[in-house]
Amino acid sequence: MSTTQTSRLARRGKEAAAHPAQEARAKADAGSGWYAWLARGGLVAKGVSFGIVGILAIGVAAGSAGKATSRQGALQILAQHTWGTVLLVLLAIGFAGYAIWRFVQTFAEREEDGGEKGTLKKWGKRAGYIGRGLIYAALTFTTIKILIGSAGQQSQDEKAQKTTATVLDWPGGRWIVGIAGLCIIGAGLWNFYRGIKKKFEDNWRTGEMSELERAWGARAGIAGHLARGLVFSLIGVFVAKAATEYDPKHAMGLDGALQKLADASYGSFLLALTAAGLLCYGFFCLVDARYRDVSTNGGSSGSAHRRPGRQRASAVTS
Questions:
Q1: How far apart are CA 253 and CA 92, in angstroms?
Q2: How many whole angstroms separate alpha carbon 27 and alpha carbon 105?
Q3: Helices then strands (H, E): number in the chain?
């Protein structure tokens, strides 16, 4: 084979390898096709999972049997019912879709501004996408383990304490746990800010929404983000406390945070209020799945009201 033929074949091979990546970026830019299905299916699964946690927590607040639980615990409860198996399969598919969507976002993210500030912003977003993708990849794995009957009965609280104990034994482990706690508190504060300022509306194609849909979607978004902000902040405070007191027993997960609310003064009222907020967040995710502009950087430019996703779609696919 001649050198010319070898170089030609090598060039074709590179082009063939680059084509799927280019197609993925085009779908992400347009917010269309399989990319949109991954995003919307994932948001539905996310909403359903939070809604189930909210319903179970409302039952606890009302005095029904059982304890407040995390999303993993809620999935294990679903597995006890025949109809729950079908829902678990659908949720596993949805969680996997959400994880893949976030990973593709990481690859497709573009630098909006020039210079160092724009680069930092881009990589900050990418880190956020990777983090969310990993969370939902783990949730997918947990759901599959529950379906095949190999998942243990360990609560999220127990997992958090076990992980914290392991990290505390590392060199600098106390600092790592402390920083993790501060990051979780930061996530809680971000949820408060996003809810109060209704920043989630920046991602919506509001031109396609009726006044009633937008009004109730916004109300659910505010209540849901405030509830998540409270829960995240509570988890972060106790993780930070585990670091300062060098005691992993202070660490907790979502189930522990809800139980803390239940055990506090006026606990039933606080738990019911937070549970209602998580239920609202589940509803918000369903609205988000329907009206979110999932195109790359779709809501970041402030032009979501003009349906930029539709405009980019025509530009990319024409």
A1: 21
A2: 10
A3: 11, 0
In contact, 140 and 92? CB cutoff 8 Å: yes
pTM: 0.83
Q: Which residues of 85-109 are buried (b: 16+ CB within 10 A; e: fewer)?
A: eebbeebbebbbbbbbbbbbbbebb
How far apart, in whole angstroms, are the C-alpha atoms of residue 250 and residue 236?
10
What's the CA gap between 147 and 150, in Å, rounded? 8
3-state DSSP call for residue 299? Answer: coil
Distance CA 267, CA 269 (A): 5
Q: What distance in Å separates the CA atoms of residue 39 and residue 289, rounded to the nearest whole number?
A: 7
CA dist 161 and 231 (Å) reads 17
Encode pLDDT of 172-226 as tens digits. 999 999 999 999 999 999 999 999 999 999 999 999 999 999 999 999 999 999 9
Question: What H or E segment, with its residue span, contains residue 208?
Answer: none
- The type of residue at 156 is Q
Q: Residue 246: which residues within 8 A CB-CB, separation 6 or more?
A: 168, 174
pLDDT score at 308: 41
